[in-house]
Design brief:
mainly alpha; 3 domains; two-stranded parallel sheet; 2 strands
């Protein structure tokens, strides 16, 4: 199975590098065929004669392909729904296909096609203007996605033009000016869509639109990720966890002298920030503290080279618009104010990344969290990197937050308040993203929910919601932190609390097996029986969780 998966991954990359226009009908058709052929090949393998480890890989690959098929179908439908806004897509796709097939261009015909695109854009804008109130209504979120598609088509057209311009004299003579006019028309059309259909200014980087996917899409995603709960049950689970966090928050708030006024306790720890210029040293100290803690308590193996190769960068002001807090992985990216920010932005950045708040999550990003994950994934079963899932990556890092809190890593009440802010945040992410994608909440309601129920600064709450819905992460990504962490907690109970494994054996095994749906990791570590038609059934949080 490792060879099967390695070949599958290489084939998929080859197709992605060849069919580069993601909205192309040819790409949709080619990948539909690819995934269908891969499932046929998988079905031909003698499953019952495979070793258990190979059966695990078989189940993981099959779940991955089904997930890719669902995503492809969803994307294809979305493009179909916005077809009336993209009359020029077939023409640009034809030019992209010409380049992909390495065909000699027909400059005169290509110039005519470009001219026709400009006319179609003008005609479309005129028709909608003339129709006035009677113009066909377009969903705001879908129109916003159409803006992104137009930008992708512009980039594809530019790549096509640059392939021949200057190298083919006749091409340049015929096409250079029509291309420039088409590029300008597409840019103008994007601005038209934003202003008239989306309702925001072209340079607006703050308004959050989002794209609710609906309950059916959420259910399909949950099944693909082997989470046997409904979106409504996820909300109930998250609320139950939030309630536990609130009890812990109130204990710490009382210890700080603020009684049950936990917002005042949160306000106090926000003020415990270091001056500009001193944040990197603070983060470095927290990184070292967590690294030493997990090694001293024999929780996970940390190779000396992992500690030696930790790296740090400072986050740009632009990226802080969607990532108000530090992030990690191959390196930790520190979010802190720069001299280009306004006074309000500077204060929100410092308050949102104060000492107690940072102490609670630096290890989530580095050791024993994401950095150690990436380090080990490159060295153990690396072929499973194809199956990267936030339920494993983010869930494992959140599990470390759970475990270290229970072990008393946060020693002061201020540090415990900081830890609970983040734990409440993980629950809040599930609640607001599920409600948004179910069509119940607006982005503005999501922002206010974070302010009221987690204690976030307004700008930080806005950035968090923007990141959740700007298309950079999938609908389940923000839920994966808590749900993945709860899966690891349940697995830890089955294997470590029962005495079957030590903490060291458990955490090393997770990293050595590499990324996969956690239910299949459970089957792997516990040697559970699998079938070719295996589907999710592990109720890691009990049957039918509800919350009053």
């Amino acid at each position: 199975m490792p060879d099967v998966i390695t070949r599958y991954s290489a084939d998929q990359r080859s197709l992605e590098q060849t069919y580069t226009l993601r909205v192309s009908p040819e790409r949709f058709a080619r990948f539909e065929t690819f995934y269908s052929d891969e499932l046929t090949l998988l079905a031909s393998l003698p499953f019952q004669h495979l070793a258990h480890e190979d059966q695990v890989d078989y189940a993981v690959l099959k779940a991955h392909i089904h997930d890719q098929q669902h995503e492809l179908a969803r994307r294809k439908k979305e493009i179909g729904d916005m077809a009336s806004l993209l009359p020029f897509l077939p023409a640009i796709d034809a030019l992209a296909e010409q380049k992909r097939q390495m065909k000699k261009p027909d400059p005169e015909a290509d110039a005519a096609a470009l001219h026709a695109m400009v006319e179609s854009i003008a005609a479309l804008e005129k028709a909608r203007k003339d129709a006035g109130p009677n113009a066909p209504r377009m969903d705001r979120a879908l129109a916003n996605r159409a803006v992104q598609v137009v930008a992708e088509l512009q980039r594809s057209l530019q790549t096509w033009f640059e392939m021949y311009n200057g190298y083919d004299p006749m091409f340049t003579w015929w096409v250079a000016l029509p291309y420039q006019q088409t590029d300008e028309a597409l840019k103008s059309y994007r601005e038209y869509l934003l202003k008239e259909l989306v309702g925001i200014a072209p340079n607006d980087k703050l308004t959050i639109i989002g794209n609710p996917v609906g309950r059916d899409a959420l259910l399909a995603d949950l099944a693909d990720n082997m989470i046997p709960y409904t979106p409504e049950e996820l909300i109930a689970i998250a609320q139950t966890e939030y309630d536990w966090c609130m009890k812990e928050m109130l204990k710490a708030s009382r210890d700080m002298g603020y009684g049950d006024n936990w917002h005042a306790a949160v306000e106090k720890i926000k003020q415990m920030h270091v001056p500009p210029g001193e944040q990197p040293e603070l983060i470095r100290g927290y990184m070292s503290e967590a690294d030493q803690y997990v090694q001293q308590h024999n929780l996970v193996t940390v190779p000396p080279l992992a500690t030696e190769t930790l790296r740090m960068i400072m986050m740009t002001p632009e990226r802080q618009l969607v990532n108000p807090f530090f992030t990690g992985g191959d390196e930790i990216s520190v979010s802190y104010p720069t001299d280009t920010m306004t006074y309000t932005q500077r204060m929100m950045s410092m308050r949102g990344n104060s000492g107690p708040l940072s102490h609670a999550t630096v290890f989530h990003e580095m050791i024993p969290g994401h950095f150690l994950q990436f380090y080990m994934s490159a060295r153990y079963n690396p072929y499973r990197g194809e199956f990267e899932t936030p339920f494993w990556h983010e869930g494992n890092s959140l599990w470390w937050e759970m475990l270290l809190y229970d072990m008393g890593f946060q020693q002061t009440p201020e540090q415990r308040v900081g830890a609970m802010v983040w734990r409440m945040h993980r629950s809040a992410r599930v609640i607001f993203t599920m409600n948004f994608h179910l069509g119940r909440w607006t982005p503005q309601q999501c922002v206010q929910f974070l302010i009221d129920n987690v204690g976030f600064e307004p700008d930080n709450a806005t950035a968090e919601v923007r990141r959740s819905f700007d298309g950079s992460v999938g609908p389940l990504y923000q839920s994966a932190y808590l749900m993945g962490g709860l899966q690891f907690r349940a697995l830890h109970h089955e294997l470590v609390d029962s005495g079957k494994m030590t903490n060291l054996q458990f955490h090393d095994a997770i990293l050595h097996e590499n990324s996969m749906p956690i239910e299949l990791l459970r089957a792997d570590l516990e040697n559970l029986a699998l079938t070719p038609e295996y589907s999710s059934h592990w109720k890691f949080y009990g049957e039918h969780p509800t919350h009053p």
